[in-house]
Protein backbone atom coordinates (compact mmCIF):
# COMPACT_ATOMS: atom_id res chain seq x y z
CA UNK A 1 0.00 0.00 0.00
CA UNK A 2 2.69 2.53 0.96
CA UNK A 3 4.67 1.61 -2.16
CA UNK A 4 1.98 3.19 -4.36
CA UNK A 5 2.41 6.51 -2.56
CA UNK A 6 6.20 6.28 -2.81
CA UNK A 7 5.74 5.65 -6.52
CA UNK A 8 3.64 8.83 -6.74
CA UNK A 9 6.39 10.78 -4.98
CA UNK A 10 8.83 9.68 -7.68
CA UNK A 11 6.39 10.46 -10.50
CA UNK A 12 5.91 13.95 -9.01
CA UNK A 13 9.65 14.53 -9.13
CA UNK A 14 9.82 14.00 -12.91
CA UNK A 15 10.03 17.18 -14.99
CA UNK A 16 6.96 18.04 -17.06
CA UNK A 17 4.82 15.36 -15.33
CA UNK A 18 5.27 16.61 -11.76
CA UNK A 19 2.21 16.56 -9.52
CA UNK A 20 -0.06 17.59 -12.40
CA UNK A 21 0.35 14.11 -13.83
CA UNK A 22 0.92 12.16 -10.63
CA UNK A 23 -2.31 13.18 -8.87
CA UNK A 24 -4.57 11.81 -11.64
CA UNK A 25 -2.51 8.60 -11.66
CA UNK A 26 -3.05 8.11 -7.92
CA UNK A 27 -6.75 8.94 -8.06
CA UNK A 28 -7.33 6.64 -11.04
CA UNK A 29 -5.61 3.88 -9.02
CA UNK A 30 -8.35 4.47 -6.43
CA UNK A 31 -5.91 5.54 -3.72
CA UNK A 32 -6.90 7.84 -0.87
CA UNK A 33 -7.08 11.34 -2.42
CA UNK A 34 -5.67 13.02 0.70
CA UNK A 35 -2.60 10.77 0.75
CA UNK A 36 -2.26 11.15 -3.03
CA UNK A 37 -2.25 14.94 -2.61
CA UNK A 38 0.29 14.87 0.23
CA UNK A 39 2.59 12.41 -1.58
CA UNK A 40 2.51 14.37 -4.80
CA UNK A 41 3.13 17.74 -3.15
CA UNK A 42 6.12 16.28 -1.29
CA UNK A 43 7.47 14.71 -4.48
CA UNK A 44 7.09 17.92 -6.47
CA UNK A 45 8.96 19.93 -3.82
CA UNK A 46 11.98 17.61 -3.40
CA UNK A 47 13.89 18.72 -6.54
CA UNK A 48 13.41 22.47 -5.92
CA UNK A 49 16.33 23.29 -3.58
CA UNK A 50 18.77 21.23 -5.65
CA UNK A 51 17.65 22.90 -8.87
CA UNK A 52 17.88 26.36 -7.36
CA UNK A 53 21.40 25.71 -6.09
CA UNK A 54 22.89 23.85 -9.06
CA UNK A 55 20.96 24.88 -12.17
CA UNK A 56 23.13 27.86 -13.15
CA UNK A 57 26.27 25.74 -13.10
CA UNK A 58 24.57 22.95 -15.02
CA UNK A 59 23.31 25.40 -17.64
CA UNK A 60 26.82 26.85 -18.11
CA UNK A 61 28.24 23.35 -18.54
CA UNK A 62 25.54 22.32 -21.02
CA UNK A 63 26.07 25.43 -23.14
CA UNK A 64 29.85 24.88 -23.25
CA UNK A 65 29.60 21.18 -24.16
CA UNK A 66 29.26 20.73 -27.92
CA UNK A 67 27.06 17.63 -27.53
CA UNK A 68 24.61 19.23 -25.10
CA UNK A 69 24.64 22.84 -26.27
CA UNK A 70 21.19 22.41 -27.79
CA UNK A 71 19.84 21.28 -24.39
CA UNK A 72 21.42 24.29 -22.69
CA UNK A 73 20.01 26.64 -25.32
CA UNK A 74 16.55 25.07 -24.99
CA UNK A 75 16.58 25.41 -21.19
CA UNK A 76 17.94 28.94 -21.35
CA UNK A 77 15.17 29.96 -23.76
CA UNK A 78 12.55 28.27 -21.57
CA UNK A 79 13.76 30.08 -18.45
CA UNK A 80 13.97 33.47 -20.14
CA UNK A 81 10.52 33.03 -21.72
CA UNK A 82 8.94 32.49 -18.29
CA UNK A 83 11.10 34.88 -16.27
CA UNK A 84 8.99 38.00 -16.78
CA UNK A 85 5.93 36.34 -15.25
CA UNK A 86 7.86 35.35 -12.16
CA UNK A 87 10.34 38.15 -11.53
CA UNK A 88 7.80 40.99 -11.49
CA UNK A 89 6.34 39.80 -8.20
CA UNK A 90 9.09 37.42 -6.96
CA UNK A 91 7.41 35.34 -4.21
CA UNK A 92 3.86 35.92 -5.43
CA UNK A 93 5.09 35.33 -8.98
CA UNK A 94 6.52 31.92 -8.03
CA UNK A 95 3.34 30.99 -6.16
CA UNK A 96 1.07 31.90 -9.07
CA UNK A 97 3.39 30.46 -11.70
CA UNK A 98 3.56 27.06 -9.99
CA UNK A 99 0.03 27.21 -8.56
CA UNK A 100 -1.77 27.53 -11.88
CA UNK A 101 -1.52 24.01 -13.29
CA UNK A 102 -0.60 24.65 -16.90
CA UNK A 103 2.01 22.75 -18.90
CA UNK A 104 5.61 23.79 -18.10
CA UNK A 105 4.64 26.00 -15.14
CA UNK A 106 5.80 23.70 -12.38
CA UNK A 107 8.59 23.27 -9.89
CA UNK A 108 11.34 22.63 -12.39
CA UNK A 109 10.79 25.78 -14.46
CA UNK A 110 10.20 27.98 -11.42
CA UNK A 111 13.33 26.66 -9.68
CA UNK A 112 15.41 27.21 -12.81
CA UNK A 113 14.17 30.80 -13.11
CA UNK A 114 14.85 31.39 -9.41
CA UNK A 115 18.37 30.04 -9.85
CA UNK A 116 19.21 32.10 -12.92
CA UNK A 117 17.87 35.30 -11.37
CA UNK A 118 19.50 34.63 -7.98
CA UNK A 119 16.36 34.65 -5.86
CA UNK A 120 16.83 33.80 -2.22
CA UNK A 121 16.50 30.04 -1.82
CA UNK A 122 14.15 30.48 1.14
CA UNK A 123 11.75 32.66 -0.87
CA UNK A 124 11.88 30.50 -3.98
CA UNK A 125 11.29 27.24 -2.07
CA UNK A 126 8.45 28.80 -0.04
CA UNK A 127 6.81 30.01 -3.25
CA UNK A 128 7.24 26.59 -4.86
CA UNK A 129 5.75 24.84 -1.82
CA UNK A 130 2.70 27.10 -1.68
CA UNK A 131 2.30 26.97 -5.46
CA UNK A 132 2.42 23.17 -5.47
CA UNK A 133 -0.12 23.03 -2.68
CA UNK A 134 -2.43 25.26 -4.71
CA UNK A 135 -1.86 23.34 -7.95
CA UNK A 136 -2.42 20.07 -6.09
CA UNK A 137 -5.80 21.25 -4.80
CA UNK A 138 -6.85 22.37 -8.29
CA UNK A 139 -5.68 19.18 -10.02
CA UNK A 140 -7.23 16.99 -7.31
CA UNK A 141 -10.57 18.81 -7.56
CA UNK A 142 -10.63 18.55 -11.35
CA UNK A 143 -9.57 14.89 -11.34
CA UNK A 144 -12.06 13.87 -8.67
CA UNK A 145 -14.88 15.56 -10.59
CA UNK A 146 -14.02 13.79 -13.84
CA UNK A 147 -13.47 10.27 -12.51
Protein described:
With 147 residues, this protein is mainly α. The protein has one domain (2-146). Helix content is 80%, strand content 0%. It has eight helices and no strands. It has helices at 2-13, 18-28, 33-45, 47-64, 69-87, 91-99, 107-116, 121-146. Helix 1 runs parallel beside helix 3 (33-45). The protein is globular and about 45 Å long. The model has no long low-confidence stretch (mean pLDDT 89).
Return the average pLDDT rounded to an integer: 89
Q: The biggest beta sheet, please?
A: none
Q: Whole-number radius of gyration?
A: 15 Å
Number of domains: 1
SS elements, strand count: 0
Give the low-pLDDT segments. Answer: none
SS content category = mainly alpha
Estimated helix fraction: over 70%
Ends apart, CA distance between termini: 21 Å
- Shape from CA axes? globular
- Beta content comes to under 5%
Give, in order, the helices and strands: HHHHHHHH
Strand and helix layout:
Layout: H1 2-13, H2 18-28, H3 33-45, H4 47-64, H5 69-87, H6 91-99, H7 107-116, H8 121-146
